[in-house]
Automatic annotation (TrEMBL):
<keyword id="KW-0853">WD repeat</keyword>
<dbReference type="InterPro" id="IPR051944">
    <property type="entry name" value="BEACH_domain_protein"/>
</dbReference>
<protein>
    <submittedName>
        <fullName>Uncharacterized protein</fullName>
    </submittedName>
</protein>
Amino acid sequence: MHSHRFSTLTFCLVLRGKDELELDFRRFWEEFRSSSSEKEKERALNLAVDVFCRLVKQHSSIAQLVTKLVEAHVFSFVIGRAFVTDVEKLRIHSKGRALRVADVIGFFSDITELGICPGSNLLYAVEVLVTEVSEIFQAKFDPNMFYVHLHSVSLLCGVKSIR
């Protein structure tokens, strides 16, 4: 029952143009920000990030896109925090201190019932925010984004602390 609804949602998102996707992003972002349930927040963020990744591939100016859609520093913080949280969950669920390769690959390739790949999307969003949107942050760079990236890499590599 639910899988039909979710696959229809995913199919509709694939067929939408830039303007509709921007509206979808804003709607999912608002759902994420206003939701009180962690499960609803996670679902809305996964959908917002999926739409963001689709939009990035359609726009020539990623920095302009980000500033048009959302407050860049808030979005980058949320994306970075979500990525670190997911990597920490992987580490916690792995046996011992080191991450298992199969778990990491699974995280970045698993597809949800919504037809999206949250791990891969999150990694792509972090990459875009760190590499493509630097002009937004030149005047007010969020140093936490760089720290989040380093912290995530250190977790993946099994380093205890980078401080």
